[in-house]
Write a structure and sequence with these properties.
With 137 residues, this protein is α/β, with parallel strands linked by helices. It is built from five helices and five strands, in the order E-H-E-H-H-E-H-E-H-E. It has one domain: Rossmann fold, CATH 3.40.50. It has a five-stranded parallel β-sheet with strand order 2-1-3-4-5, sandwiched between helices. The longest helix is centred in the middle third of the chain and has 14 residues. It is globular.
């Protein structure tokens, strides 16, 4: 299965770990091509890098292009800024793209209790795997 991993970039280390685990299971896995600068950086520095990317690179369109011909996305939704199972605006858009592309949408953790997000994510029938990669089929 061809799977894109999406998440807050504060989770880049977890994204890389999961990517390797999925590859070992035989999946073809991709992430944003702009992640390398963020490895090992503080949350503050990651936010600075993201802002530069938003202003100089069309990262949303670049990932949209990567999503073509994929089978699924896996959302690594970990806690952030005091929000359990956080999903940010960019990831919400990627969930929408996956839905329009008829891709499966897997969530690492349950849907967060973020106003307006929960119903939208429920609508796309996201599959919660609770960290169990064997549920990706």
């Amino acid at each position: 299965m061809r799977i894109g991993i999406v998440s807050s970039m504060q989770n880049v280390d977890k994204m890389l770990e999961v990517r390797e685990r999925l590859k070992a299971m035989g999946h073809d896995v991709f992430m944003t091509e702009f992640y390398e600068e963020m490895i090992g950086q503080s949350s503050e520095r990651i936010e600075e890098i993201k802002q530069v990317h938003k202003n100089t690179i069309d990262v949303i369109r670049a990932f949209w292009k990567q999503m073509q011909n994929a089978d699924a996305i896996l959302v690594i939704n970990l806690d952030k800024n005091g929000i359990k199972n956080y999903i940010g605006g960019n990831v919400l858009m990627e969930i929408g793209f996956a839905h329009v592309l008829n891709q499966k949408i897997f969530l690492w953790n349950p849907i967060p209790e973020i106003p307006h997000y929960k119903s939208e994510i429920e609508t796309v029938k996201a599959i919660v795997i609770n960290g169990d990669l064997s549920k990706i089929k």
